[in-house]
Design goal:
10 strands; binds zinc ion; 8-stranded mixed β-sheet; alpha/beta; TIM Barrel
Length: 268
């Protein structure tokens, strides 16, 4: 598994390494491709006057400053965006933006989500606060994940095995397969959320049986965790998961999947 496409930097506020530290850690482990996916979420900054402030999210505005290859590692620009409602909408969708970060008015008003999604290569859609799904039916939570997958920039559903929101696995996997999108098997979950391991394994087994591709992200919140997927590897080997369904096995495979499902990143 030569790609790590779910990692965080200090811009996630509860993560501790810079992008350069993550890149260097990836290079040391001969990771071919690193996807940096800081949180795009209300966990970071509070709303002010009913909207999020574009200046709080400007760490996602200038991603084109990053080289595409750094220390020999291909570098992709991503976010981990929160799913915020049962319609599968993503953080920032309803937060209006009228100004640039320097206060100059935009020619056409937009939303925080559209603005940021115009600058990234791909998004991971994850649930971190499951309160919106309280009391929801399985049909509703399934539709929620399906709608999230329908977003043109969403390539990966993040850590569905630990989010605390049950859903119809086969139905969501069917849509992921149709769209060429990925279900994540998340290293941090297997390493630190033992209660979720059974569900993660069930999801992986259904991916294998149904021919759905997976993504193996570390969800590293510090550079020492980048590229280290021991728990994921052990689990996948234990269930004889087919290598051809691992989208993160090498950079070429991952970039092909990304290009078909979401589009070719600018400058690649
Ligand atoms: Zn997450
Ligand atoms: Zn994460």
């Amino acid at each position: 598994m030569a790609c790590d496409v779910h990692t965080h930097t200090i811009f996630s506020r509860h993560a501790y390494s810079t992008i350069e530290e993550n890149v260097r850690a990836a290079a040391e482990l001969r990771v071919e491709l690193l996807g940096s996916t800081d949180h795009f979420s209300c966990m970071l900054y509070p709303e002010r006057n009913g909207a999020f402030d574009v200046r709080d999210f400007q760490y996602l505005y200038n991603l084109s400053a990053w080289p595409r290859v750094w220390c020999g590692v291909r570098l992709l620009r991503g976010v981990e965006a929160d799913i915020v409602d049962l319609d599968g909408r993503l953080f920032g969708w309803d937060s209006p933006i009228t100004d640039e970060i320097n206060g100059h008015p935009l020619t056409a008003p937009t939303t925080l989500k559209e603005r940021v999604f115009g600058k990234i290569d791909y998004a991971i859609a994850s649930i971190h606060d499951d309160s919106f799904a309280e009391g929801a039916s399985l049909a509703q939570t399934t539709a929620c994940y399906v709608h999230a997958l329908e977003d043109p920039k969403v390539l990966i559903l993040g850590h569905t095995g630990r989010s605390g929101v049950p859903f119809d696995v086969d139905e969501v996997l069917t849509v992921a397969k149709e769209k060429g999108k990925l279900i994540e098997i998340n290293e941090a979950t297997l390493a630190r959320h033992r209660e979720a391991v059974g569900q993660c394994q069930k999801i992986a087994e259904r991916c294998a049986e149904m021919g759905v591709m997976i993504s193996t992200g570390t969800d590293a919140h510090i550079s020492q965790s980048v590229g280290r997927v021991d728990h994921v590897r052990a689990m996948l080997e234990g269930i004889h998961f087919p290598q051809k369904l691992v989208a993160t096995r090498d950079a070429q495979t991952f970039l092909g999947v990304l290009e078909r499902a979401v589009g070719r990143p600018q400058g690649l």
